[in-house]
Specification:
The chain has 19 helices and 17 strands. The protein is of the alpha/beta class and 491 residues long. The strands form three sheets. A 13-stranded parallel beta sheet has the order 5-6-7-8-9-10-11-12-13-14-15-16-17, with no helix packed on it. Strands 1-4 form a two-stranded antiparallel sheet. This is F-box/LRR-repeat protein 7. Residues 10-26 have a biased composition (Low complexity). Residues 111-157 form the F-box domain.
Amino acid sequence: MGANNGKQYGSEGKGSSSISSDVSSSTDHTPTQAQKNVATSEDSDLSMRTLSTPSPALICPPNLPGFQNGRGSSTSSSSITGETVAMVHSPPPTRLTHPLIRLASRPQKEQASIERLPDHSMVQIFSFLPTNQLCRCARVCRRWYNLAWDPRLWRTIRLTGETINVDRALKVLTRRLCQDTPNVCLMLETVTVSGCRRLTDRGLYTIAQCCPELRRLEVSGCYNISNEAVFDVVSLCPNLEHLDVSGCSKVTCISLTREASIKLSPLHGKQISIRYLDMTDCFVLEDEGLHTIAAHCTQLTHLYLRRCVRLTDEGLRYLMIYCTSIKELSVSDCRFVSDFGLREIAKLESRLRYLSIAHCGRVTDVGIRYVAKYCSKLRYLNARGCEGITDHGVEYLAKNCTKLKSLDIGKCPLVSDTGLECLALNCFNLKRLSLKSCESITGQGLQIVAANCFDLQLLNVQDCEVSVEALRFVKRHCKRCVIEHTNPAFF
């Protein structure tokens, strides 16, 4: 693979301690003139190694297969107390050109087929690799080193896993990416650190201080981060548009730091440019925290508050005062949200396209009427488990939201074939329909839907008392429809 690039980096890319021991051992004997020349060439080559490559062991445990680097594996990483210790490796040196070495070298083998690929093709291949694999590739040979650190490949950092020392990994990676522009990494736009429980505020501080051009940050499942670190990120990364802190139970709101607030005008809330915010499973989020979020993130268009169980209708009222551009909103499993909350949501009017109120047990036909009356351009509604919804609510929804494409009214026992008939006669563009565990649904209602909604692509009738003939009727009229069912006679 590196036939025209000299030795493999696994045997030459030693750490600083190995280099020092090699240099010191060469002074114990009286060298010949040829050996002096070779040593001089090696010393000059080593002195020019100013760049460094993070070891793959930085982001994966050292005992995993594939992390041994041939003869030089002992210098790649070390484990002291079960924790992966990051080592930084120099780029592979160019091949020594001393005449004696050229005469002693073996004949070159045929060039590997992958080496025949042009640089732009190699960069394209590398673009599909995660961060740890890209670091591996940088250690193969000098050509791969230069290609692996192409700035186009480092607009995104993706790290996953519970055992990764993420704080150290982010520090080393950002330091390497800041070499051309000291202390500032202008190329990095996306950081995805999902399920890394060892990520702490220190790692987010590194991102906030070094990556002012950050546009997307995903730290879902990293429950050790707190409000202060999130505040630093949104304050020092003015272009941040996408923030995912789902599962971060310590995060209770999104705001600027006090220092940033003092420097900005009284309308500093408009300075936070976040448009996409996912706070799913942020259990301690309360109405006051949502008020702070709404006041500072007025440009929100996508907001997901699934299982934020402390939120009430009052929090939604604050939200509608400041965030009037929301297109997608989820308050699934927020059990205190009722028809009054839906009345507030209805103030979004035609801007609202996606709404999830699944398992909001206090929602009835009254709340559905509010949404249907004012949000005429609604495309997606998830009302699963809202047992207060009846055929009247479905009828009002069907007649006012005729462009509806996806509807989930599973576990709504009061919805029957009458509601399905109104739906089928008004929402011809329906593509996804879930009726799971709707006890009052029969095969007749399904046949009406299939006869009018030819574009239906997914139908869920699990735990519904429908006949095999009705399912076959649906399959004949909606040929692209995938039917999810629990009838063993239909296949």
